[in-house]
Design a protein that fits this description.
single chain; mainly alpha; 3 helices; 49% helix; 0% strand
Length: 71
């Protein structure tokens, strides 16, 4: 399986805040992330949200494009 690398347009801190606004049940702990640990984040969110890894990757990447829109 190919290693996942997120394509982000802003910092992880901004992406995380955008995601928390979209899915309020997610916590900072759920969204803890270090570069190179993409698979661990996807697996954690897959279990919590009941969505596929691809759906979660798309959510994360789309949240990076909403800079200045959320809130």
């Amino acid at each position: 399986m190919e290693k996942v690398v997120f394509k982000l347009e802003c910092s992880w801190a901004e992406v995380k805040e955008n995601i928390k606004e979209l899915i309020i049940e997610l916590t900072d702990q759920d969204l803890e992330f270090q570069p190179g640990e993409e698979d661990a984040l996807l697996e954690r969110l897959e279990a919590k949200l009941g969505k596929s890894k691809e759906e979660i990757r798309l959510l994360i990447e789309s949240a990076s494009y909403t800079k200045g829109i959320a809130g």
